[in-house]
């Protein structure tokens, strides 16, 4: 038996929330960034990122799944031809939420949610270089620990040999 999701519905029923998130995602993909309340932005982020991940895969099944959510074919086409390939090498984190001041009328906390720029070649190279540096530093620590353990074994072995020689004498 289907059970409703827990938590706030953002001013309406579950069906209203579903349509609201679909419209927010549609506007986000159309304009690149939108200004909304913090609560709506936080609810939109995983929803939109899931759609971008489907667009990255780019097959017919995923296109139909996205079309069932976003009914505007031109925006789905943009999502699959421009936005999805832009994040081809990015493993996630396609959106950024930036808090701005409160809204003037009702003092509601506002935020801007936007699609982040794709990683450039230089940024990817920098990220790979940083990862390699971290790996080499970790390897150096492990080797240093191994040499300390080996030195300790050699010292105890020399001590044992000296003790045996003194017993023989």
Give structural notes:
- The protein has 169 residues and is mainly alpha-helical.
- It has two domains: 14-117, Ribosomal protein L17 (50s Ribosomal Protein L17, Chain: A, Alpha-Beta Complex), CATH 3.90.1030; 120-169.
- The protein is built from five helices and three strands, in the order αβαααββα.
- The protein has helices at 14-31, 38-57, 60-69, 73-86, 121-168, and strands at residues 33-37, 95-102, 109-115.
- The protein has a three-stranded antiparallel β-sheet.
- A hairpin with a 6-residue loop joins strand 2 (95-102) and strand 3 (109-115).
- Helix 1 (14-31) crosses helix 2, helix 2 packs antiparallel against helix 3 (60-69) and helix 2 crosses helix 4.
- The N and C termini lie far apart (87 Å).
- Part of the 50S ribosomal subunit. Contacts protein L32.
- Keywords: Ribonucleoprotein, Ribosomal protein.
- Belongs to the bacterial ribosomal protein bL17 family.
Outline of the structure:
This protein has helices at residues 14-31, 38-57, 60-69, 73-86, 121-168; strands at 33-37, 95-102, 109-115. It is mainly α and 169 residues long. It folds into two domains: 14-117, Alpha-Beta Complex (50s Ribosomal Protein L17, Chain: A); 120-169.
CATH architectural name of the largest domain: Alpha-Beta Complex
Number of strands: 3
> How helix-rich are the residues, as a percent range?
55-70%
CATH class value of the largest domain: Alpha Beta
Low-confidence stretches: none
Report the C-alpha radius of gyration, rounded.
28 Å
Look at the helices and sheets and give the structural class.
mainly alpha
Inertia-based shape:
elongated
- CATH topology category name of the largest domain: 50s Ribosomal Protein L17, Chain: A
How many strands, which pairing sense, and closed or not: the largest β-sheet?
3 strands, antiparallel
Strand order of the largest sheet: 1-3-2
User: What percent strand?
Assistant: 5-15%
């Amino acid at each position: 038996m289907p059970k409703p999701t827990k938590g706030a519905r953002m001013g309406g029923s579950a069906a209203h929330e579903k349509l609201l998130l679909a419209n927010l995602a549609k506007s986000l993909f159309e304009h690149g960034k939108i200004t909304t309340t913090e609560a709506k932005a936080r609810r939109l982020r995983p929803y939109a990122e899931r759609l971008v991940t489907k667009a990255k895969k780019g097959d017919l099944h995923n296109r139909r799944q996205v079309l069932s959510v976003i009914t505007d074919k031109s925006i789905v086409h943009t999502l699959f031809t421009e936005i999805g390939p832009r994040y081809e090498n990015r493993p996630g984190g396609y959106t950024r939420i930036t808090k701005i001041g409160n809204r003037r009328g009702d003092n509601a906390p506002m935020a801007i949610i936007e699609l982040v720029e794709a990683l450039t070649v230089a940024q990817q190279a920098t990220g790979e270089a940083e990862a390699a540096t971290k790996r080499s530093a970790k390897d150096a620590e492990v080797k240093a620990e191994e040499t300390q353990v080996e030195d300790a074994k050699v010292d105890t072995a020399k001590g044992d040999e000296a003790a045996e020689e003194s017993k023989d004498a």
